[in-house]
């Protein structure tokens, strides 16, 4: 009995020592959460400039009506019965009659100006000034006589030519239409070559005809100077000032600014068109309906646009539009920026899915990660809480700043490090092997936050904005070509991802 009792005591002592060793190897790690930092303002970059464009039309029929009024510009020029005596002694006569004037399509006649003596070449070649040159034309029949010479009479009648009137048409800063005659030319289809006593009779006739028509066109052009596009531009301007509802808690603000133009063009007929551009900084905002921004319609900028514009939301652009400097500087994209919140519970679930079951081992000691969470600390920092079991149980905290990886299209945690309280706890009460393990590197590799929820929501919202009736006369239509994250910022409520949508926007006015 004594021997058995002693043997049992030895077994009990060994078992106790074994259990004591197990308890000594298992560590419980429960550091306090990191303290919150004071809030800091969002440091994301500013919005990108775009341009919203729309067409305006001007009806030139009052001008055309005046140009075809015989009391303003005669249709017949009869000097056949009364000869004209030239200072050099030559006598000549002529008769001409014209058809009605009509607006020529842009580009159908080379614009000419009697005031311009040269054309700028070299690196300016092909770049035209912002003003528009429009032409009106009419068929002309004529005959000339300078005894004993004569052309265009009898069996030869008529000689043919084309009258071309060139006008500079623009807009005043107050959106009024302005016009002036820059020149009148007569292009002979059937030239009449008559010269007497060193006098080019045909040229003399051309000079007389073009001078008379130029004066009449100047009187007719006064009708254009009474026209204005202000009411149309004001209608669009005040419409674009209003927030555009996309969802009950989502709004598009265009934040419009300066107004400029491309230049008039014509496809023929009495209607000419210009494209008005309004600079904008489109953003999506969330929450209650924001107040209307902006104010009265600003004056029209009459200088060419600067190259600082980053984007444009082009309205319907027409193939007949003149190739002006402003057209070339107007970009062809529409850029919308939004700071989209990603909630921490959803991010935590995604992070936990990536980290659960991961093993960290140092020689014979190990832990298994059982859970992970992420939350905002303030100061543009996030905190990662990592829970684990194994030879140590509990949790640790890591802190870092979110950073956008545009190539990988994801958010990563830059400068990730163990929180000071977590680090001090491991140093004081262990386990020391955990502080030297690869747990930080493991978390850094897995703490990658996808942008798909943010980019998908952005695409959906912008798509709604691109097919919208803004008013009974104004609608939008466009496409989204790309959506990407361009910045990230963390506060205690959410992780905000700045997303930019690129695409095109057509603003239609009265269905045009």
Could you give the topology of this structure?
Blueprint: H1 2-25, E1 27-29, E2 50-59, H2 61-67, E3 76-85, E4 91-98, E5 102-103, E6 132-146, E7 149-151, E8 159-171, E9 177-188, E10 195-196, E11 199-200, H3 201-221, H4 230-241, E12 244-247, E13 250-253, E14 259-261, E15 265-266, E16 271-280, E17 283-286, E18 300-301, H5 325-329, E19 334-342, H6 344-355, E20 359-362, E21 365-378, E22 381-390, E23 392-405, E24 410-418, H7 420-429, H8 432-435, H9 439-446, E25 448-450, H10 452-465, E26 467-471, E27 474-490, E28 495-509
Parallel strand pairs: 1-23, 14-18, 17-19
Antiparallel strand pairs: 2-16, 3-4, 4-6, 5-6, 6-7, 6-8, 8-9, 10-11, 12-13, 13-17, 14-16, 15-16, 19-28, 20-21, 21-22, 22-23, 23-24, 24-25, 26-27, 27-28
Helix pairs in contact: 2-3
What would you note in describing this structure?
By secondary structure, the chain is an alpha+beta fold. It has a domain at 60-226. It is built from ten helices and 28 strands. The protein has helices at residues 2-25, 61-67, 201-221, 230-241, 325-329, 344-355, 420-429, 432-435, 439-446, 452-465; strands at 27-29, 50-59, 76-85, 91-98, 102-103, 132-146, 149-151, 159-171, 177-188, 195-196, 199-200, 244-247, 250-253, 259-261, 265-266, 271-280, 283-286, 300-301, 334-342, 359-362, 365-378, 381-390, 392-405, 410-418, 448-450, 467-471, 474-490, 495-509. Strands 1, 20, 21, 22, 23, 24 and 25 form a seven-stranded mixed sheet that branches. Strand 22 (381-390) and strand 23 form a beta hairpin. Helix 2 (61-67) packs across helix 3 (201-221). Mean pLDDT is 83; it is low at 11-24, 110-130 and 304-332.
